[in-house]
Design goal:
The chain is 32% helix and 21% strand. The protein is built from 24 helices and 32 strands. Strands 17, 18, 20, 21, 22, 23, 24, 25, 26 and 27 form a 10-stranded mixed sheet that branches. Strands 5, 6, 7, 8, 9, 10, 11, 12 and 13 form a 9-stranded mixed sheet that branches. It has a 3-stranded antiparallel sheet with strand order 30-31-32, covered by helices on one side. β17 and β18 form a beta hairpin. α6 packs antiparallel against α7 and α22 crosses α24. Pfam families: ABC_tran, Fer4, Fer4_RLI.
Length: 664
């Protein structure tokens, strides 16, 4: 009986259509044939019902269902007593809840459909947890008794006594214009309870948008507007559901700093985010969510930021001795094969070009690229990355400059607006008939992107993440010399982003083609890039697309524009942003003094507020301590190093430089 209680049956409400089938699930069920009501469904039913107590987990109904609407999932046996919420019979279950702490930022990380938004609704007091008793919901007294002895008991008690006011920044900001009418300034004036509107608008670059109507805002502007509306209100609980969507790297960091400015000993702040580098920068501690999407989700205990994200990537929870992913997600420092292994057969050149569009002018410095190479374009929104891609694709003609080489180009646009009225299978058959049935393409692209799960769904009914995966498969399936991919991570969760990056990397390497990728997720960008094109200048005014650079030089140039530094995690090598004013941000400027007996080095951090002085004597008395400190600054595992410092060292003594390299 204990074994039966740890099995849940899920019936997809969108796919189950009893009026259009012959109730194959009921007819094939061995328990029903024995005379027990394990599956109840008739041609007049809206949806099938499966008894989880009687189900033996044979899986016959799953295979017989013509619409793929059923799934039977085995739960870890220790979770049955920890059900927090279930919507209805044969529907999603959430186990446990994240535990927020006052004065700290709680980050939630997990795949789509795993219960993060459900957890936010419950913690905001907008959804009453039913403890799995959907047919007989408990009252609040019973709920408080269930959580007794935990921090959640006090939390829910405060919510019930109306001591806590909660505000949620919604996930889908593109729906805001339907709910809010008027200008940006008028809405902000109406919501400004803390009198901090001017500061928040300056931090989020909203000052010049105050006269604009909400319905005229772009996706990134809507996101910043939504964050500002939440930040200027008085509340005890602040919740941000995916605050970095549509934003470029610089805007993401500004949004993170603005959210962290809300920290107060009496406030709870909870953030759901798929960009792991931003979540790392933003959070004080992390709760991971694992399980089966749309079936059940489990919340882990709180971990430190580094440990929590590493647990999510590793797929193993040490405190529960439980593995929820077959393979760990690891970022290798050198993911590309060696030069000897990848034979570059072709080299292409594009000329210097200029393009003027209204007040915006883009200058492109001439460059070159080879096959089996991925070029990542880095820059703020409005610097002309998409314009550059369209010019390479031949969709925009340059005003000045030479002709772009004629190449077969496959283009995945930034905004995906589906026009097809048929199923995904019909769309794939129509666009990439040869590729989507080819065994190599199926292994490299279709299976990792999980296209099989949605292949019979209507294109018009797909979610944003599903559309993104289909668009990526269509782009890679088209025969071409150059693949132009604009923001492949949009709408995807953390796991899907890493999988999409791996798919693009593997495909480009095997097909011996070239890819140009625009990407704002820094982890995905560093994973993909062989070389980097940095865009600088004034966004929406006058910008320059520099010629391709090596990954290290390009990233250093881009990060110097953002005034941030990165390091790599020693366990899985993922890039991590150094917190403002931390020791890792001491990168310059450098001041050196040299005389007969010693030399001293002064390093000032990026903000100019703190400094570090190191000294090396010829007698070696302070040599070991100082070199160890410098080694921490210049460790090769860190993303950004100040190469100028090492060059300056060469001018003084090559012997000391060797010592530094040995130390690091």
């Amino acid at each position: 009986m204990a074994d039966k209680l740890t099995r849940i049956a899920i019936v997809n409400h969108d796919k189950c259509k009893p009026k259009k089938c012959r109730q194959e699930c009921k007819k094939s069920c061995p328990v029903v044939r024995m005379g027990k009501l394990c599956i109840e469904v008739t041609p007049q039913s809206k949806i099938a019902w499966i008894s989880e107590t009687l189900c033996i987990g044979c899986g016959i109904c799953i295979k017989k269902c013509p619409f793929g609407a059923l799934s039977i999932v085995n739960l870890p046996s220790n979770l049955e007593k920890e059900t927090t919420h279930r919507y209805c019979a044969n529907a999603f279950k959430l186990h446990r809840l994240p535990i927020p702490r006052p004065g700290e930022v709680l980050g939630l990380v997990g795949t789509n459909g795993i219960g993060k938004s459900t957890a936010l609704k419950i913690l905001a007091g907008k959804q009453k947890p039913n403890l799995g008793k959907y047919d007989d919901p408990p009252d609040w007294q019973e709920i408080l008794t269930y959580f007794r002895g935990s921090e959640l008991q006090n939390y829910f008690t405060k919510i019930l006594e109306d001591d806590l006011k909660a505000i949620i920044k919604p996930q889908y900001v593109d729906q805001i214009p339907k709910a809010a009418k008027g200008t940006v300034g008028s809405i902000l004036d109406r919501k400004d309870e803390t009198k901090t509107q001017a500061i928040v608008c300056q931090q989020l670059d909203l000052t010049h948008l105050k006269e604009r109507n909400v319905e005229d805002l772009s996706g990134g502007e809507l996101q910043r507007f939504a964050c500002a509306v939440v930040c200027i209100q008085k509340a005890d609980i602040f919740m941000f559901d995916e605050p970095s969507s549509y934003l470029d790297v610089k805007q993401r960091l500004k949004a993170a700093i603005t959210i962290r400015s809300l920290i107060n000993p009496d406030r709870y702040i909870i953030v759901v985010e798929h960009d792991l580098s931003v979540l790392d920068y933003l959070s004080d501690f992390i709760c991971c969510l694992y399980g089966v999407p749309s079936a059940y989700g489990v919340v882990t205990m709180p971990f430190s930021v580094r440990e929590g994200i590493n647990i999510f990537l590793d797929g193993y929870v040490p405190t529960e001795n439980l593995r929820f992913r077959d393979a760990s997600l690891v970022f290798k420092v050198a993911e590309t094969a060696n030069e000897e292994e990848v034979k570059k057969m072709c080299m292409y050149k594009y000329p210097g070009m200029k393009k003027k569009m209204g007040e915006f002018e883009l200058t492109i410095v001439a460059g070159e690229f080879t096959d089996s190479e991925i070029m990542v374009m880095l820059g703020e929104n409005g610097t002309g990355k998409t314009t550059f891609i369209r010019m390479l694709a031949g969709r925009l003609k340059p005003d000045e400059g030479g002709e772009v080489p004629v190449l077969n180009v496959s283009y995945k646009p930034q905004k995906i607006s589906p026009k097809s009225t048929g199923s995904v299978r019909q769309l794939l058959h129509e666009k990439i008939r040869d590729a989507y049935t080819h065994p190599q393409f199926v292994t490299d692209v279709m299976k990792p992107l999980q296209i099989e799960n949605i292949i019979d769904q209507e294109v018009q009914t797909l979610s944003g993440g599903e559309l993104q995966r289909v668009a990526l498969a269509l782009c890679l399936g088209k025969p071409a010399d150059v693949y132009l991919i604009d923001e492949p991570s949009a709408y995807l969760d953390s796991e899907q982003r890493l999988m999409a990056a791996r798919v693009v990397k593997r495909f480009i390497l095997h097909a011996k083609k070239t890819a140009f990728v625009v990407e704002h997720d820094f982890i995905m960008a560093t994973y993909l890039a062989d070389r980097v094109i940095v865009f600088d200048g004034i966004p929406s005014k006058n910008t320059v697309a520099n010629s391709p650079q090596t990954l290290l030089a390009g990233m250093n140039k881009f990060l110097s524009q953002l005034e941030i530094t990165f390091r790599r995690d020693p366990n899985n090598y993922r890039p991590r942003i150094n917190k403002l004013n931390s020791i890792k941000t001491w990168n310059g400027p450098f001041r050196l003094k040299f005389n007969r007996h010693s030399f001293s080095l002064s390093v000032q951090n990026l903000s100019g507020k703190r400094s570090l002085s190191l000294c090396y004597r010829r007698d070696g008395s302070q040599c070991q301590i100082c070199l160890r400190c410098l080694g921490r600054l210049l460790h090769p595992a860190f993303m950004l190093t100040h190469t100028g410092f090492r060059e300056t060292m060469c001018a003084f003594t090559s012997g000391l430089l060797k010592l530094l390299y040995c130390c690091t």
